[in-house]
Amino acid sequence: MPTVQYGGDQAGLVILYPDDETKWIKGGLEYADDILKQSVVVTTGQDNGADWSVSPPVSGTTDSTGRVRTVVEFEREEEGTGASLLIRIGGEEVREVTWVFGASQDSNEEIWIGFFGARPVKPDVAGTFEVQVEEWDLVVKERYGKTRRR
């Protein structure tokens, strides 16, 4: 993220459900109230709205050049039912989304996972917004022991 920020600038990981564009989850960093914060937005689809939560960023997320650096992780919880998605930012668990993996084991629901950088369109803000992904590591753990690295 650049050193000059505008309200709404954000970057992180996202899960999209291509069969329902109103259902998605994102977690990362976002400028809200002119302060860089941890941010998670969860929508459940069918235009039911969104749940947005923000909290102060973890310490040590800005390097000596003023660039923000952190690790955003999405992980399926291994305890209990295995239905929850755990979201960590900077090593701190900031959210548990309990319904993500709750579908039937026979479900073939397609999901897309990726990273994003965004700046909401505003009439008084011009220019670009730089997001640099330094490392991208995707490990797919299937429920019954198979692991694939992408």
Please characterize this protein's 3D structure.
With 150 residues, this protein is mainly beta. Helices cover 0% and strands 40% of the residues. It has one domain. The protein contains no helices and ten strands. Strands 4-3-2-1-8 form a five-stranded antiparallel sheet, with no helix packed on it. It has a three-stranded antiparallel sheet with strand order 5-6-7, with no helix packed on it. A two-stranded antiparallel sheet has the order 9-10. The two termini are 25 Å apart. The mean pLDDT is 78.
Percent strand:
35-45%
Helix and strand string, N-terminal first?
A: EEEEEEEEEE
Kindly report the average pLDDT value: 78
The order of strands across the largest sheet is 4-3-2-1-8
**Share of helix, binned:** under 10%
The biggest sheet, with number of strands, parallel, antiparallel or mixed sense and barrel status, is: 5 strands, antiparallel
